[in-house]
Design a protein that fits this description.
45% of the residues lie in helices and 5% in strands. It is built from 19 helices and 5 strands. It has helices at 11-24, 43-57, 65-68, 72-82, 97-104, 113-127, 155-162, 182-189, 194-209, 213-225, 230-238, 251-255, 259-266, 279-289, 303-322, 335-340, 342-353, 413-421, 427-430; strands at 145-148, 168-169, 245-248, 271-276, 330-334. The protein has a 5-stranded parallel beta sheet with strand order 2-3-1-4-5, sandwiched between helices.
């Protein structure tokens, strides 16, 4: 512990101190004590801290919070800033409640041009798009299927449904494509995202190669140290899955402006499933899960604005990238279709992929081992959509829950215009 104990000063800090003390079995814990350096916290303890906070505030708190804010004082500020509409649930006994309630029902502000441009600049910097794409390997990789969609668009459900087919290999998020090499991938995303960047690749290697978690982790560390190319990692997976076709469903790919161009350089005749969801549905889910907190940069905008910037920029890039791709290698699918008519949707996907339809594909909660839905890390936490695991079957109502939250349009004109091309109406047009 730090040399000088500093007691909690606010309701939020008091609440967090109690949670930390219970999780670490240490009393008292000062607001400047560092989670790992002073208190010896690890991933298991992190789960015991994150989970009760999530339960109290009623929305997802990403594991990265403890990397971004490793002391009680910093975490209190972090939560107050990023969860302003929920923080009162954590400190409902404190005097600050009245101040927080004033902001609770604040109207969602439209995404401004300057904010959209700031998001796009940050994305281009993250992926170093000025450097262009990786060169074509000497021998192109075998064909693969890429699900292109922003986060919170139903890609986890779709990839698990596809994992039910014996001719497909559909792992968790690989998060490989936007980076030229594994070392640069680790450098550009940083230590705080190591868990999210390694989990999907580790599980894919374990399943494909039949190796242990430690062997998969050692393999990843080795290819990072040797700065091997992303193509070599894809090849290692493809070479171990026999005649099955690899499915890459990483939502991070959709955020990468050069995704389709890069895929075409690496793979022989790849196929694309462009998955869409109504922007309001995606934004509501995105804001609830605080998916914006996973990006290794910070913007001074609300979660809903960040989500719209992601939705709009991603789909614009996907549409532009697919313009010159033959229609036989691309198909469109909506989350609303997938949940309302899963069998019809899967038959269309199978026809597109030139494989027979299997009834198991519409039972995504069966055969969990085959579908790679179990965590392989010591945190016991999955990447992808954790809400998927809260259901027992495909629920068609999930796609429309946003209608209970949003009753007036707040989206930009260009977002609504692109949404209309996908068949989605504005709230005004629905009335």
């Amino acid at each position: 512990m730090s040399d000088q104990y500093q007691a909690p000063r606010t309701g939020v800090e008091i609440a967090l101190a109690k949670i930390w003390e219970q999780a670490l079995n240490i009393e008292p814990i000062g607001i400047r004590d560092h989670f790992t350096d002073d208190l010896g916290g690890d991933s298991i303890v992190a789960v015991r801290i994150i989970e009760p906070i999530q339960k109290k505030i009623g929305v997802t708190l990403q594991m990265t919070a403890l990397f971004d804010a490793p002391t009680i004082a910093e975490l209190a500020s972090y939560l107050t800033k990023n969860y302003k509409n929920q923080i009162h649930l954590l400190m409902d006994y404190a005097q600050e409640l009245d101040d927080q309630k004033e902001e609770k029902n604040q109207a969602i502000q439209p995404l401004q041009d300057s904010q959209l441009q700031a998001y796009q600049r940050a994305i281009h910097t993250l992926f170093n798009t000025e450097a262009g794409i990786s060169p074509t390997p000497e021998d192109k990789l075998d064909s693969a299927v890429f699900i292109l969609s922003p986060p919170r668009s139903g890609s986890t459900l779709l990839r698990i449904m596809l994992a039910g087919h014996t001719k497909l290999f559909s792992p968790q998020e690989l998060n490989l494509l936007p980076f030229p090499s594994m070392q640069q991938r680790a450098t550009q995303t940083g230590e705080r995202l190591t868990f999210f960047m390694q989990e999907g690749v580790a599980q894919a290697l374990m399943e494909a190669k039949g190796c242990t978690q430690q062997e998969a982790t050692d393999f990843i560390q080795d290819i990072e140290t040797k700065d091997k190319s992303i193509a070599e990692v894809y090849a290692a997976i493809q070479n171990s899955i026999g005649n099955r076709v690899l499915v890459d469903k990483s939502p991070l790919n959709a955020s990468y402006p050069l995704a389709v161009e890069q895929i075409e350089q690496l793979f022989e005749s790849p196929k694309y499933i462009h998955l869409t969801r109504h922007p309001y549905g995606m934004i509501k889910s995105y804001a609830e899960e605080r998916s914006d907190m996973l990006f290794p940069f910070e913007l001074d905008i609300e979660p809903e604005q960040f989500a719209e910037a992601n939705w709009l920029s991603s789909h614009q890039a996907i549409e532009q990238g697919l313009e010159d791709i033959p229609m036989r290698r691309q198909m469109n699918l909506t989350f609303e279709q997938l949940t309302a008519s899963p069998e019809t949707s899967m038959k269309k996907v199978c026809h597109f992929l030139n494989i027979d339809y299997h009834l198991s594909m519409v039972n995504p909660y069966d055969d969990k081992d085959q579908r790679m839905t179990k965590s392989v890390n010591d945190k016991g936490i999955m990447i992808g959509d954790r809400k998927f695991y809260q259901h027992k079957n495909i629920d068609p109502n999930v796609a429309n829950t946003w209608k209970e939250t949003y009753t007036e349009d707040f989206l930009r004109d260009d977002t609504l215009e692109l949404a209309s091309l996908f068949g989605y109406q504005s709230i005004q047009d629905m009335d």
